[in-house]
Amino acid sequence: MKFKDFLSSFSYLLSESPKETLAPGGRFVFMSDLHLGDGGSRDDLAPNRGLVQNALARWYLERGFTLVLNGDIEDLSKFRWREIREAWGGLFEIFDAFHKAGRLRRIVGNHDLGLLARNDYPYALTHSLALDWNGHSLFAFHGHQASRFFVKYDYLSEFIVRYLAKPLTIRNSGVSGDSRYRYHTERLIYKASRRLGLVSITGHTHRPLFESHSKYESLRYSIEELLREFPKAKAARKNEIAELIEVYRRELARVDRKKLRRDLGSSLYGHNDFLVPSLFNSGCATGKKGFTALEIEGEAIALVQWTGVKGPRTYVEGESVEHSLLEGTPYSRYVMRRAALEEVFTRIDLLGRD
């Protein structure tokens, strides 16, 4: 697919998007790819049921966050809407509480597009959400719009809505399991976001991204920072640094074995010397060690990881910049990365839009 074709489609999606102002002190949490099923063995979210429900109800709802469900919430490719609704009554009660407070935004993805054809879905559905922050745009959408299907056929057309009673099988419906399609999807969105000078917040690929960097890139940079610190560090700190580097090296080896290293790197996104922080991805809620999400709180954006009874992967505790326990539960919240929005948009403006 030619980039100019996607850019045209992407620009139209942005122009037609609902728009809100990100007020000073505003709080948003972005989650995607819950893939709710029937509660059985084929339900991807079932193992994280308690973690997700507690995090939403006892952290984000109580702290006044607006919940943005950014696509693929119900998995209509495998289950019927009625089965999902019956299996996840408790979670929908939490969604209802956000909705009644005026703090729920529901964006569709490729696995739940069929909801557009229903008359009994309880929440308003949109294809995207644009947040204005001091004249800059943070643009949330699921990410399937980068597929050839949705560029060729206007996803807002009556054709899509009319024939989605049964989910469509499009080429990249399984993009999260194919590194080539993940890269292709991310590259298109990155280039379009950079060209338009905005921040895109997506899901779809199931891979958390922060400031256009993958976990592999973030770990590598962390090792480099520790190596620079080591020579002037005191003895006790040197021991800590050595232990952290070994933990990060093991995690990098695990990532490399899974052939994830190719997924993101500056050379893959283009020939520019610097990656521009124009692409963020909330990851998914179906991880074996918990779920990831993106938070906007005040003037900053953060990538967080919530972990359950199995705890986090070893590297998470050392890599995180903040750790909170959800009182009375075995669940923890780790802030993996945080950046001021002013810094993010300064880099976008000054590093160029080519």
Number of domains: 2
CATH class of the largest domain: Alpha Beta
The main pleated sheet reads as:
8 strands, mixed
Distinct helical segment count: 12
In the CATH scheme, what's the topology name of the largest domain? Answer: Purple Acid Phosphatase, chain A, domain 2
Describe the structure.
This protein has helices spanning 3-15, 49-61, 81-87, 89-100, 148-152, 158-162, 179-196, 215-229, 235-257, 266-269, 314-319, 341-351; strands at residues 19-21, 27-31, 66-70, 104-107, 125-126, 129-133, 136-140, 199-202, 279-281, 291-297, 300-307, 322-325, 332-340. The strands form two sheets. An eight-stranded mixed beta sheet has the order 5-4-3-2-10-11-13-12. It has two domains: 3-214 and 262-351, Purple Acid Phosphatase, chain A, domain 2 (4-Layer Sandwich); 216-259, no CATH class. It has 354 residues and is an alpha/beta fold. It is 37% helix and 18% strand. Strand 2 (27-31), helix 2 (49-61) and strand 3 form a beta-alpha-beta unit. Helix 1 crosses helix 7 and helix 2 (49-61) packs parallel to helix 4. The longest helix is centred in the C-terminal third of the chain and has 23 residues, at 235-257.
Short overview:
The protein has 354 residues and is an alpha/beta fold. Helices cover 37% and strands 18% of the residues.
What is this structure's SSE topology?
Elements: H1 3-15, E1 19-21, E2 27-31, H2 49-61, E3 66-70, H3 81-87, H4 89-100, E4 104-107, E5 125-126, E6 129-133, E7 136-140, H5 148-152, H6 158-162, H7 179-196, E8 199-202, H8 215-229, H9 235-257, H10 266-269, E9 279-281, E10 291-297, E11 300-307, H11 314-319, E12 322-325, E13 332-340, H12 341-351
Parallel strand pairs: 1-6, 2-3, 3-4, 4-5, 7-8, 8-9
Antiparallel strand pairs: 2-10, 6-7, 10-11, 11-13, 12-13
Helix pairs in contact: 1-7, 2-4, 8-9
